[in-house]
Design brief:
This protein is α+β, with helices and mostly antiparallel strands. Among the domains are: 12-104, Uridine Diphospho-n-acetylenolpyruvylglucosamine Reductase, domain 2; 225-405, Vanillyl-alcohol Oxidase, Chain A, domain 3, CATH 3.40.462. Helix content is 30%, strand content 22%. It contains 17 helices and 20 strands. The strands form 4 sheets. A 7-stranded antiparallel β-sheet has the order 14-11-13-12-18-19-16. Helix 8 packs antiparallel against helix 13 (353-359) and helix 15 packs antiparallel against helix 17. The protein starts with 11 loop residues before the first helix and ends with a helix. The structure holds flavin-adenine dinucleotide.
Length: 468
Amino acid sequence: MTSLSGKTQIDWDAFTQALDPVEVIDEPVLIKKRSRDFFWYSPILNAELRRCFGDLVAVPKSVEELARCLATAFDFDAPVVVRGGGTGNYGQSVPMDGGLIIEMTGMNKILEIGDGFVRAQAGALMADVNAALRDHGREMCMFPSTQDIATIGGFVAGGSSGIGSIANGMLRDPGNLRALKAMDVTSDPKEHLFEGEDVLQVHHAWGLNGVITEVTLRTVPAQDWIGCIATFDDYATAYATGYALAQMPEIGCKLISTVDARITDYFPRLKGHVRSAKHLMVSMIPADQIDAFRAVIEDNDGVPDLTLTEDQRIAAKLPHVFDFSYNHTTLQVLKADRKATYQQIGCPAPPDPQAIADLRPKLGDDVWMHHEFAKVGGEIVTFDLPIIWFTSEDRLAEINATYAANGFPVYDAHTWQVEGGGLKNADYRHLAWKKRMDPKGLLNSAKSMAWDSVKDLSPEDIEAKATT
Ligand SMILES: Cc1cc2nc3c(=O)[nH]c(=O)nc-3n(C[C@H](O)[C@H](O)[C@H](O)COP(=O)(O)OP(=O)(O)OC[C@H]3O[C@@H](n4cnc5c(N)ncnc54)[C@H](O)[C@@H]3O)c2cc1C
């Protein structure tokens, strides 16, 4: 077998034999498909990553089969990229160095539903976990809008927040991610348990420092949610109303997003259900709080156009309201026009509607705001995932500079290295654990800018850098 990636000198036939009885996928078209994620949201990443492929895909069904994959990779010095649903936006699961792709969706058992927690294998789909919890009167404290294809392990390794974060905070906030197990890449791979604060050694490390096999997440009591969309004449008013709602614990929203009116032209499925050419506030409200919700909207000169129970939504053949939130908002626009892209922007905290109103005219007509409300460490924050009509890297840099100069930090969505986007600096705790768990540096190493500079140090010396 020749190397599909063009980057490895490994005898992939011998490798495949060594993996037996683990299921493998060696059809080039299928390997190429599994070498992609949603990096194409970014024209910059699309140009850089679309020709990066792995050489072989393994689909382990058990901890033992996963151990066989990792031991074989260790023996052959094969680069490894772990893949969940492949819904990441920054090429996190693209095999930059070629090699083995381990698809985790075969390890998908829900292992335990207990008092306030769920424990599942890393490849379980978030939607399946949520469905199983419903039977126990519980739900996940948060989930990404990609829950139908994203895995629980991929969320822990690559995600950060989602639907539920306005109520329950970020995934990294204490108690949300209770424990995880991760396997090392050695000749005799073992699982390691991380509990309490130690989960942060692996959370959001993009699969660089161990293969997550099992995750324990906090659950909350299930509620009957009403999917709501309210419309406003003015964007800053929609944002101010979102902030007002976020400050009302008695209402207890699960989702609050505001969306510029121009974006709503790209939501054809909402036509006839919400007033056209208006700014949106998208939210999920407990059924017994819907009257209070309507009153807040009307007091703020808005109109609560759409308020649907789950049964009514299904009968109306409408998508979930969260299909118009988080990065699904970008997806709706991209479905119609591939010239769109987006950016990730922090906002002044506490939320300041005036700052949003002041910033809007400074951004060009090629930047259309969309804010998500969440809690970080108990404080309400917002972040902007604007639609940007991409023309050039220079113009994107200019837009970034306008945001930054006005006090809105940019967490660049157009970079494929972990230190380039949300994580501004190297996380030496992650890298120290990488040295412990992956001494040969086989796991997704290209995704860390800092790894090359520390890979010859001891884990303790790498860790010491975290405090210097
Ligand atoms: C339309 C859209 C909406 C989104 N909305 C959200 C959102 O609301 N919130 C959010 O946080 N993100 C969001 N994302 C990003 C992404 O969907 C989530 O982070 C998702 O949880 C990733 O899960 P996955 O299974 O697809 O992971 P993948 O994309 O397969 O992998 C993500 C990273 O985790 C690593 N990984 C996967 N499984 C394991 C494992 N078992 N062990 C170790 N490493 C592993 C991979 O190597 C990769 O680096 C969105 C993306 C899109 C395209």
